[in-house]
Structures are given as structure tokens and as C-alpha cells.
């Protein structure tokens, strides 16, 4: 049976260092680093963290209805099997090299450098604002996601996203095996240097989007104000409506109602490797 801690106010270094089997309610962790470092089997409910490094090298952690204030920065690193629900995380640089992360109804208003190099992430009803979200993380499943921040998912692998709204320049750079369903993405240079990027039922707005991609698949998508698309990409794109401009795809098939500007330079690509189908011409 777990020991209960209620309405405590901890200060100073490592007040609950290396503790296990605790249920912590309505408690404040104030000034003092690493209050729960190397802890295990901890339940946190309606509690607050106000200082740095609260959950490092921990495992089997449940966080519900809690708040991590801005100074709880770099708060959750090297932790295994952590679920966070109905929680506000104001602190940046959270979740680094963690495994088994579940986030449900979590807000990250200051999400710079958040979720770096983590493995096994599930997110539902998450909002975030900050650059470099989820860099070099892997095995990610996301539903109902809102992001404002550039350079997201750089180097990410094995990612599945549903129902997202992302305002994010340079998203999915250097990524592999990413699939996005039923989402809106606005941002320049989407997906450069990615491998196996699939977009299904998505609306995209992007200057020079989807370039330098190995195996880009787009199904039932819209491209709004998207210019100089697909440069040096191998692509299978089914676009509803028009495309403003396409430049030098490496190969594949592009289907759209209309393409305002098609740039194919024989000295840069083999133009015979790409099939262009405009439905208005049928």
C-alpha cells in the first residue's frame, strides 16, 4: 500500500530523493532542485512544481491535475513510463530522453525544446507553443494536437498524427516514416530531407514545401498558397484544386485540377520520370 502525502510544502534540495510507492496530493515543491529524482511508483495529484529538475531518472509516474511553473524547467528527463493528464506545463525543455510517455489534455505554453530524443510517446488533446518540439523522438502517436512553433519533429521517426493544426516552419525535416491524417499545416519548407512522408486528407500552406523528400505520398490533399513545391522529391500526390507552382520533382506522379506554373528544367532533373496530370485537361 502506498504512503500518502497531503498538503505539504517542500523546499530545498531533493526532499523526496529516491522515494517510492507514494501518493502525493495538493502538495507544493518549491525552491530546491530535484525533489523527486530517482523516484519510482509515484502518483501526483493536484500538486505544483516551482523549481528545476523535479522528475529525473524516475519510473512509473502518474501526474494528474498538476502544474509545472516556468522555473520547473528541464523538469522530466531520463524518466521511464510516465503519464501526464489534465496538466499545465509552463516550463520549457521538458521530457528529454524519456521512454513510455503518455500525455492527455496537456498544455505547453512555453514548449521550446520539449520532447527531445524520447521513445514511445502517446499524445491526445495536447497544445504546445515553442520551437523544436519533439526533435529526434520516435514511435509517436498523436490525436487532437495544436502547435505553434517552428522546426517541429526534426529527425523524428515512426510518427502518426491525426487531427492536428500546426503553424510550424520547417516541420518534419530529416524525419522518416511520418503519416499525418486530417490535419492543417502552415509553414515554409515543410518536410525537407524527409523519407516516407505521407499526408492524407490534409490542407497545406507552404512556400517551397515538400522538397528534397524521398517517397512523398499525398492523398486527397489541398495545397493553398503553396509555391515551388516538390523540388527534387519523388512524389505520388493527389491534390484537390490547384497548385500555385511546381518545380523540378525528381520523379513520380502529380495529379491536380490545375497547376499555375510548372517548372521542369532538363539540366537539373530527368523530366521523363515525372507524370503530370491536370484534371481540367481531361
What's a quick, concise take on this entry?
The chain has 282 residues and is an all-beta fold. 0% of the residues lie in helices and 51% in strands. It has a domain at 131-281: Pectate Lyase C-like, CATH 2.160.20.
Record the SSE blueprint.
Blueprint: E1 3-6, E2 9-10, E3 20-25, E4 28-29, E5 40-45, E6 48-49, E7 55-56, E8 59-64, E9 67-68, E10 76-77, E11 80-89, E12 99-108, E13 119-129, E14 138-148, E15 157-167, E16 176-181, E17 184-186, E18 195-200, E19 203-205, E20 214-223, E21 234-239, E22 242-247, E23 251-256, E24 258-263, E25 274-278
Parallel strand pairs: 1-3, 2-4, 3-5, 4-6, 5-8, 6-9, 7-10, 8-11, 9-11, 11-12, 12-13, 13-14, 14-15, 15-16, 15-17, 16-18, 17-19, 18-20, 19-20, 20-21, 21-23, 22-24, 23-25
Strand content: over 45%
Q: What's the SSE pattern?
A: EEEEEEEEEEEEEEEEEEEEEEEEE
User: Spans with pLDDT under 50 lasting ≥5 residues?
Assistant: none
The CATH architecture of the domain at 131-281 can be given as 3 Solenoid
First-to-last CA distance:
72 Å
Roughly how much helix do the residues carry, as a percent range? Answer: under 10%
The main β sheet shows up as: 6 strands, parallel, barrel
Amino acid at each position: 500500500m502506498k504512503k500518502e502525502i497531503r498538503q505539504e510544502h517542500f523546499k530545498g534540495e531533493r526532499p523526496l530523493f529516491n522515494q517510492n510507492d507514494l501518493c502525493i496530493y495538493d502538495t507544493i515543491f518549491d525552491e530546491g532542485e530535484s525533489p523527486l529524482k530517482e523516484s519510482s511508483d509515484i502518483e501526483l495529484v493536484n500538486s505544483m512544481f516551482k523549481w528545476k529538475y523535479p522528475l529525473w531518472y524516475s519510473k512509473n509516474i502518474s501526474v494528474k491535475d498538476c502544474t509545472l511553473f516556468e522555473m520547473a524547467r528541464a523538469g522530466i528527463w531520463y524518466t521511464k513510463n510516465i503519464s501526464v493528464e489534465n496538466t499545465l506545463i509552463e516550463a520549457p525543455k521538458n521530457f528529454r530522453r524519456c521512454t513510455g510517455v503518455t500525455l492527455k489534455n496537456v498544455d505547453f505554453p512555453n514548449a521550446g525544446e520539449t520532447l527531445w530524443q524520447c521513445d514511445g510517446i502517446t499524445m491526445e488533446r495536447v497544445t504546445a507553443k515553442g520551437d523544436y518540439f519533439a526533435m529526434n523522438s520516435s514511435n509517436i502517436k498523436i490525436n487532437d494536437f495544436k502547435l505553434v512553433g517552428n522546426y517541429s519533429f526534426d529527425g523524428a521517426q515512426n510518427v502518426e498524427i491525426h487531427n492536428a493544426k500546426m503553424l510550424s516552419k520547417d516541420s518534419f525535416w530529416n524525419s522518416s516514416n511520418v503519416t499525418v491524417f486530417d490535419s492543417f499545416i502552415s509553414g515554409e519548407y515543410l518536410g525537407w530531407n524527409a523519407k516516407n512522408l505521407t499526408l492524407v486528407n490534409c490542407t497545406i500552406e507552404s512556400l517551397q514545401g515538400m522538397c528534397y523528400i524521398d517517397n512523398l505520398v499525398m492523398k486527397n490533399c489541398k495545397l493553398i498558397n503553396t509555391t515551388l513545391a516538390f523540388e527534387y522529391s519523388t512524389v505520388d500526390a493527389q491534390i484537390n484544386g490547384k497548385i500555385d507552382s511546381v518545380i523540378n520533382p525528381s520523379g513520380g506522379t502529380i495529379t491536380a485540377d490545375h497547376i499555375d506554373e510548372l517548372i521542369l528544367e532538363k539540366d537539373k532533373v530527368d523530366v521523363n520520370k515525372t507524370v503530370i496530370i491536370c484534371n481540367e485537361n481531361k
